[in-house]
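Fold these two proteins, one after the other.
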Amino acid sequence: MTAQRVLAAQIAVVGGVALALLVKEIPGIVREVRIWRMVGLRAGSRRPR
């Protein structure tokens, strides 16, 4: 039982760290999505002007 508790604790810690990192990076991700929308996701596939 002790090994299962240690594994569960490690999973909880890793999940918490991953969630914190995601929350910290959300503003940057939103900014990148806005830039992609302005530029267009397929900028390289458009025909030249």
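Now the second one:
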Amino acid sequence: MKRPTYTLPSIVKKVFRSGERSLPRMEICTRLEASEFIALTELDSMSLLDTVLKMEQTPVRVGSSDAIVEIAYQPHQLYDLAYRFLRETQTPKKVEQIVAELRRQTQFGWNQILRLLQLEKDPRFVQYQGDSRWFLAEWTLANDEVYAFCQKNGITQVTSRSLIHFLEHEVGIAADAAFLPGLDDRFQIDGDTLYIMVMNEESEVELFVHEVAAAAAADTIAPEVTEQTEHQEEQHQEQEEMKEDFTMNNIQNQHVLQEVQQLLEQAMSKLETRHIEMSQEVVAHFQQSNMQAIEVLMKEKHKNEQIALGIKQVLATSEQQ
């Protein structure tokens, strides 16, 4: 389930409130856990913070002790001018656009501005994964609002020519709100048309079920697949070492393959059972508007796709014997 997600440095910057220059490490982790941002990453709060601290262009640094983390930003007029530029235009900008504007307003050269203007360090600027533009941290995200309006009114497409009018005068989103359809799988851009993948509540639940069901049985089937794959390899080694008894080993190998197939069939049966259970769980989460719980389940999807691929490979190997 693809949604606009802040970059890791931006997630950490959003934790700091206005006027805060430093925080205890544990307080940052607590705020990260309490926010909705970390649910869309693959990291826990401590790992996320440590990852950002190790980045070359990091917005934070270790303070007077390891227990304290402070903002790395150092005030400079270029940052203030960049902030004013984005706020006045109410439009996200690429760094090249910001540098061009600052060069027009000041006597600084292009390379000098690039060296001094490290927006990663200023908590007033944030980025979304997959988007190179810079946004102001104070701006809101309008994707949910736009989708809800389209769903309520049965709107399935909007032309690019009328999009701005549609957002401002029909949906009524704030002038400083960001709308990022390219980072959201509820929207699809095709040429000059924005398509809204509008679903009713029942269809949306079914989509969640479809996305998370494959991830539900990882812990159930992984041990069996690993154990049987290792067992198959051991039997193969024995076959190589005992060539003089080829006939006996061939029979034994066939027996092992049959066992593997039976165990995989049992694993698939457990997967189907878990699929039904997950359907009920997702429906319950959706009815409670617990989107974070559903997002957490989605984190398991990638891991389980790899496990499913492993099962298919084992089955393909056994069918060739």
